[in-house]
Design goal:
The complex is a heterotetramer, with 2 copies of chain A and 2 copies of chain B. Chain A is α/β, with parallel strands linked by helices. Chain A is built from 16 helices and 12 strands. Chain A folds into 2 domains: 254 residues, Aspartate Aminotransferase, domain 2, CATH 3.40.640; 123 residues, Alpha-Beta Complex (Aspartate Aminotransferase, domain 1). Chain B has 3 domains: 47 residues, no CATH class; 119 residues, Aspartate Aminotransferase, domain 1; 253 residues, 3-Layer(aba) Sandwich (Aspartate Aminotransferase, domain 2). In chain B, the strands form 5 sheets. A 7-stranded mixed beta sheet of chain B has the order 2-10-9-8-7-3-4, with helices on both faces. Chain B has a 4-stranded antiparallel beta sheet with strand order 13-14-17-16. Chain B has a two-stranded parallel ribbon with strand order 1-15. In chain B, helix 3 packs antiparallel against helix 10 and helix 5 packs parallel to helix 10. Chain B is globular. Classes of the chains: A alpha/beta, B alpha/beta. The complex binds pyridoxal-5'-phosphate (PLP) (2 copies).
């Protein structure tokens, strides 16, 4: 028979069940290939004739060898092992996993946008330039700032860009500053970016209302403070009501305010970071503006700045000219932060989203996002109390600590059990300052029926935590794999097909 | 008035009353009045999708470049993307998933990333690849940061053959990290390492293979510099050429960085692209970004999970190896699918077709009057020619004949550059497997007319 | 709370598990709608002004009311409850469920083809006309016939068209004929089409080799026989070796031979129906030429005919003119058999498939389809013996009757158990003449590794049939629903949301 | 040499030896030599996908109609198809599935069909809809066959207002069934039932609502004829207009047939389209094609399955109610998704926008010299005008200005027809919700110039 042949079980997998999917490598059979290339009519030539032998590979580069049919089966089966917004609710706090309109996919797929070479001269790319300038103008209006760079490829890249702008600004004034202040609730990218920006992190505690402790802030401020990084609403989903006072205090010592826009969805169209006193603002277009997250990117993290920082923005910038559009270099530009012009097709998606919503629609986005979060917070009050008992913004940080004390079932177990109920888990154990945190961000595109279903699922889990905690600790069971051994993965790294298998 | 909200007015009313509020505005009542926007955003009102589509089409039509036969490269290439790759990579389970924080429901993305890492490892000749970075330029920045972490030093010797934009990006980020970047000039297309300032305080030696002018230089020289000065060898390599030429690993690189756009991603006006990143085993704890590892689930079945997370910013905060969080996962998954489609045979065929096409075109254009090779080094799939007229004028003129002739090196470098003299007269030309004999003929005859 | 609201559980479903998906109607909440329509700028007007009130509806037409997000979730979840070629092997005999190249999807999606109105004059649709004429020419070459109509929308429509051609032909000769002969192994559409063609069915038995019993055929022939309908290879996957004799016998009495092309995949590029003596041939483009089956269509069933029948073909036909292309009406056309020109986008897909394969590739298709079927037949010989022990063509009819006698486990149980193993079931209980038939058609796009995996799955099932027959009778269990109560569905018909629920 | 086969030469060799054959040709050795093709098919050799794509693009570019603003209707309409419907309907699980023979792994298609049937039932006002037929024309043929089965009679009274192609298709198939089809002429756009030949041997009375010339006629007349003569009333109705006007069921129809292309399917040069079919409860055992019903699985969960299969050809063979096997499932699923997208509000908006647009255009063009209404009956979204010049010339001329002006009734009917006099001078014009004020203006001014 042919059981010993290479190529693995290339066939099928049950529509449901826990069959392991072979890797592309396991599916390979030397000699197969799906590729069909254009007939060029160019005369073939020996490689040895055109490339000196010292450069040529000794052995051919082996990758994989699949038929198109097997490739399609493999990848399609992988997609059946993957949860996504399109399959259900994804209330992952801080991540704004709202519905991504398919229309924006069409925009990004338009060959008149997608097939344009980034190095083509401005005269040949007027449409793209107009699109980028329009998006910049929209983002300025939305944030209340004076100028924007679209180059940063994600939020963290935006943060670092913002910090370099801060540095360039102070340097231009001959001002040497050492520290950047960050609240203890901040997302991990903030401190990491501060370090890469060449600053030291000064962490300040939150007060018992979950907000910046103004006293602690004042104590931390000084002439060596370059600025502060804040999200508002902050990472516990609460609005920093004393933001005006914070801004004043920071500005007083000559520092700048950096706005981490990951939570902009809560206030878009309702409050503008510029009006709160921020000098630098990054936005996560893959959150607020619904460009899909792609399993971990690509995103886009444009940075908007107040007038005194516009001249430092990365260049080249798309510019409206007397006639048409061109590229311009800001007078004191910090330079490029991307190989080309940023994640252009992501930017196009975001602009399409903004144009559909407009001023009225974006405000509704924030209103309904906040409505949903507050409804859910209230609905779950008896089961998972809120970490801070006051109206939240677009997300609610709840805590499983009562459940844990009563039953031993942890936030993580609740999260895993939710997977079995058909929901993605909320963000767990973040922000770090809340015990057994479960951070729910329903977003505005989920209906109240869905929220109710989520609440009922959580109630049922909470009940079972009392009656059968072991079962919850063994969750999930209705998932393509059961609970995963993370420790083994870290202990014996097997990150490629060619590494030895951990066991 | 268009949006994607489900709420009916009745539901909004009931929800508000459930939470004890009277209106949607009440939700924001705790925000100081003075901060709240009066009168709404200063942007146009919402419009229905088909109305916006009309505007998008207008933008698209204004991109004359979209219709041209593409001979431009410079890190962005016009490769075949088959229907099957587009169809698979656009499956909504991939597109609309978040970062795989819950591995039990993310095996699709995780396994695809594992396959991607395996493929990048083979392309680079290095054992450990991460799950992607933003693009080639930012991958280089991460490599410098890694070298700094590994050596504790801050001096970076970077060949002028590294793409000018990448060098510019590295310089930008060096203003934060304080790295000192020394650009080592080229001589006839090839790095003149001997001209680097002395000193054994080097963190990284960065060479490009081939370099941005297309030139292939043997990397033993760079390896020797790295050895002598105690730095890591970082190779910025074209992953398509990698099917023909020696891998970064074979040349002794410690770190490989590259731009992965060539694998299934359209030109896209420059993004989203794909930063390829691979290292030797001894650098794994300094790897920037995510890495997926194989493990088992509670019942012993194979499973995949993001691992070595203790390096990452969400755990190590200011001590993280990098601040990267969201990366380019979907583009990485796309690359894995495209490489799956190509297979060993297809990738070799693509690389060979590029090289053969580029050499044919090179031979033909350099026999035109007014056109000369810009350097004398060997190349794979991209070459630089010196023109009697400014390259930007030639590009403009050839666009009128339906051809995107290449990239002006002057435009790329933004003026004087240690890589080449008088860059404004140098044109960078690239040929992919999609270019036909007829298109080459048209190129040659048009350039012949235009260059005079 | 809001538990009593309409809109069902709009949320998620577990990535795996047996959660029922609500219907669109259950998900509806009055007032929701996803539609976004173009702003026309045309002045609104009262309906009462433009349409007389006797015509206007009394009450608005209620359909459904969904947000775009819920629609996407709903439909995407439905797709996770659906097996398909892209997910795995689909060895459904007689159906040729081969891989459908994605390239052909792109062709069919090209707006320059897809957005053309079928009533636009020929001068404006030259590309389509050239495409159709080219496809006609290819199909003539492939079948060995003289002319083709592309109008029939599926195989059965092709059959009926063919029978009407048969009728028109005889009628044109003043020849009144009453009967059409069909082997007992024929697909059910054949007798049904014969009836609709105005003929009576004469069924002839197969001999013990699974072939037409030439004696029985001769006995059935007579001057009132209009023709015979055959598939070759026939529905048990065997080539009618005596086809020349059959043709001669039928022609001798003035009858015509109709070729049911559902099995053309076995011989495409290797043998042509025209060369076997057939007068009329239909093809299932959704089988041989890989246009996807769409869950039950659309397909396309072009009919090719010998020279003496060309003048009877349905009209109008796309025609090559001295300059360009136009439409022409065959002299004695039977008339239209489709509202327009046939399933045009399906035709475009098929032509793309043919152009990629070409003469050489199509022959390889048949060769490898037959190779796969014979390999599988041989590989399973001990477990599921072939109904006829001789080389088969593209499919193999096997029988579970040994298993049934030994264990009581039936072909149906084997089929259902295969679903649990990740394979689609083969065709069961067809053809009717084979006891406990399991008809496997692997097609040429499955690898030998996949065939081996299928064989192992079947062997495992056969073993379990002995050890635990009850478990097999309870299969499938790894499917979105368990074994379905078909009797209930037929007893109490609930075919719409508005009908009462059966219980 | 392109294909999608997995087999390597080694594998072919091993497989052949496993089955005891020496070559691929041996597989066909039992086929008489004389029948086997020598020298291969007389068609071009295979070409790679991108080469074929070049040819497809050439065909596409030769379709001038593709770029025109569409005012043509006649059963095929240019409606909005949003990205979301395209994305969902092209999910490969739907596209690459077979007919749902194994319900346990086909709940996706089955439930979508159930939803489709429910929607068609509501549109038609009749309780039972099937799971689709090929197109509107063949749905009419099935309706006649059903009426024959129900009444045992063969005479069909068909209004001349039924689409000329549908009438032609019915006539073609009647040559097999032997049905006698009497076309009942129109008078001023409306069926003159009084002119039908006498006799109470009628199987079906077929009316169109609105008819193909756009005219709405009250259907009580047709219902009365059907009652008097003992036949079934078959209504061929436009499903978009159905959002505004009374349903077939409300008018007393026994059978509804319609063309469902309007719901999410592009113009597609005429196919694949979608035959809508619904009946009263008493005809359910005669329903052609498939029907999906709700049931439960072994554990009592809701499940869907094709049911009443005893009517179908694979079981009843020559006694089946129809020979339909493969139908238009994917188009039906698409229609369900499009109707889901539209919802109650959107469907009404579309229908209203069509009607309002059509009436605006009608009012404006009929005030042009050389243009007159072709009949005096009310209409919904499509109207017929009589032109001073042959309609086909006008269509040709207006195409030059970027407009597909409509359909020449002469071309549709193929000459003299009982529906209207001098059809060559009659143009059928349709306006969908996609047409803007500016496009209407352009139409009017262009027609004004062209018609003289
Ligand atoms: C509060 C906050 N800041 C910053 C980031 C970083 O954004 P990105 O992942 O796009 O780099 C995130 C993303 O998770 C976030 O939630
Ligand atoms: C042998 C045979 N003949 C005819 C048909 C009917 O073709 P269609 O389903 O396209 O109408 C089939 C399809 O199943 C078949 O297998």
């Amino acid at each position: 028979m042919m059981a010993a042949m290479p190529g693995a079980r290339a066939a099928s997998a049950p529509l449901m069940g826990r069959e392991v999917e072979p890797t592309m490598f396991e599916l390979s059979v030397t000699g197969r290939s799906a590729a069909q290339l254009r007939t060029t009519g160019i005369a073939p030539r020996d490689l040895g004739e055109i490339i000196p032998s010292e450069h040529l590979r000794d052995a051919p580069l082996e990758t994989v060898a699949l038929s198109e049919r097997d490739l399609v089966g493999h990848v399609t089966r992988l997609t059946h092992r993957q949860f996504s917004v399109d399959l259900g609710m994804y209330p992952l706090g801080s991540c704004t996993m709202k519905y991504n309109p398919k229309f924006c996919d069409t925009v990004a797929g338009d060959p008149r946008l997608a097939s344009v070479h980034p190095g083509a001269p401005a005269a040949l790319t007027q449409g793209w330039l107009e699109l980028l300038v329009t998006l910049e103008e929209r983002l300025c209006a939305i944030t209340g700032m004076a100028g924007v760079t679209l180059q940063p490829a994600a939020g963290a890249a935006g943060e670092l860009t913002g910090l370099l702008l801060m540095r360039a600004y102070h340097a231009s004034r001959g001002d040497v500053r050492r520290r950047v202040i960050i609240p203890d609730s901040a997302h991990g990218t903030n401190p990491a970016s501060v370090t890469l920006g060449g600053y030291e992190v000064t962490t300040i505690p939150s007060n018992d209302r979950g907000l910046v402790d103004l006293g602690a802030l004042r104590a931390a401020l000084g002439p060596d403070v370059a600025g502060i990084m804040l999200t508002n609403p902050n990472t516990v989903g609460l609005f920093e009501e004393e933001i005006a006072e914070i801004a004043e205090a920071v500005h007083e010592v000559g520092g700048l305010l950096y706005y981490d826009g990951a939570n902009l969805n809560a206030i878009v169209g309702v409050v503008r970071p510029g009006d709160m006193g921020f000098d630098i603002v990054h936005m996560n277009l893959h959150k607020t503006f619904a460009t899909p997250h792609g399993g971990g990117g690509p995103g886009a993290g444009p940075v908007a700045v107040a007038p005194h920082l516009v001249d430092f923005l990365p260049g080249p910038r798309p510019t409206r000219l007397a006639e048409g559009y061109g590229w311009g270099e800001p007078a004191h530009s910090i330079g490029r932060v991307h190989g080309w012009h940023g994640n252009a097709l992501v930017l196009a998606r975001a602009l399409a989203y903004i144009e559909v919503h407009g001023s009225d629609g974006l405000a509704r986005v924030a209103q309904h996002a906040v409505l949903n979060a507050n409804w859910l917070r209230r609905r779950l009050a008896e089961t998972l109390p809120a970490a801070y008992d006051r109206p939240c913004m677009h997300e609610a940080v709840l805590t499983a600590s009562p459940i844990k004390s009563a039953t031993g079932v942890k936030a993580l177990d609740v999260a895993k059990a939710l997977l079995d109920e058909g929901f993605h888990a909320p963000t767990v154990y973040f922000p770090l300052i809340v015990d057994e945190a479960l951070m729910f961000e329903p977003t505005e595109t989920e209906s109240v029926q869905t929220l109710e279903a989520l609440a009922q699922a959580i109630e049922s889990i909470a009940q079972r935590a009392g009656s059968d905690p072991e079962a919850l600790r063994a969750a999930p069971r209705h998932t393509p794999v059961g609970r995963v051994d993370e420790a083994l993965a870290a202990r014996v790294l097997k990150s490629t097909e060619d590494a030895a298998r951990p066991r | 008035m268009a949006d994607y909200l489900p709420h009916t007015p009745d539901e909004v009313g009931e929800m508000l009353s459930f939470i004890g509020m009277g209106s949607l505005d009440d939700l924001f009542a705790h925000i100081p009045e003075a901060l709240r926007l009066a009168g709404g955003l200063d942007i146009p009102a919402g419009r229905a999708e088909p109305d916006v589509a009309v505007e998008v089409a207008r933008w698209g039509d204004a991109n004359r470049a979209a219709g041209l036969t593409c001979f431009a490269g410079g890190g962005a290439y016009d490769h075949e993307i088959p229907s099957v790759v587009r169809a698979l990579a656009s499956r909504s389970e991939f597109v609309t998933a978040y970062t795989p924080y819950q591995p039990e429901v993310a095996q699709g993305v995780l396994q695809a990333l594992f396959e991607y890492q395996s493929l990048v490892s083979r392309l680079s000749g290095l054992p450990i690849a991460n799950a992607s970075l933003y693009d080639g330029a930012t991958a280089l920045v991460e490599a410098l940061n890694l070298a700094h972490g590994a050596t504790g030093r801050s001096r970076m010797l970077v060949s002028a053959g590294v793409h000018p934009h990448w060098r510019r990006v590295a310089a930008t980020f060096a203003s934060g990290t304080g790295h000192e970047i020394e650009i080592v000039p080229l001589r006839d297309g090839v790095t003149d390492w001997s001209s680097a300032h002395a000193g054994d305080d080097v963190a990284a030696v960065v060479a490009a293979y081939p370099n941005y002018l297309g030139a292939l230089e043997p990397l033993d020289a760079a390896r020797t510099v790295a050895n002598e000065r105690g730095g890591l060898l970082v190779v910025a390599g074209d992953p398509v050429s990698a099917a023909l030429v020696r891998s970064a690993g074979e040349w002794g690189a410690d770190v490989y960085v590259g731009e992965g756009q060539a694998f299934g991603t359209p030109l896209s006006f420059g993004g989203p692209y794909l930063g390829l990143f691979a290292v030797r085993e001894d650098q794994v704890r300094r790897l920037p970004g995510r890495i997926v590892g194989e493990t088992v689930d509670a019942e012993g079945r194979r499973a995949f999970v993001t691992t070595l997370r203790a390096r990452e910013q969400d755990i190590r905060r200011e001590k993280a190896t990098s601040n990267v969080c969201t990366n380019q996962t979907l583009i990485a998954v796309t690359a894995a699918i495209q490489l799956g489609w190509l297979g060993t045979r297809g990738l070799a065929e693509v690389a060979r077709a590029c090289a053969v096409g580029a050499h044919a075109l090179f031979d033909e254009v350099t026999s035109l009057p007014g056109v000369a090779p810009a350097h004398g080094s060997p190349f794979v799939r991209e070459f630089a020619i010196r023109l009697a007229r400014p390259a930007s004028e030639v590009v403009e003129a050839m666009a009128g004949e339906g051809i995107l002739a290449g990239l002006s090196v002057g435009a790329l470098t933004g003026g004087a550059d240690p890589s080449i003299e008088d860059p404004d007269h140098v044109l960078l030309v690239s040929v992919t497997e999609r270019r036909t004999r007829a298109e080459l003929d048209h190129y040659v005859s048009t350039l012949g007319k235009v260059v005079r």
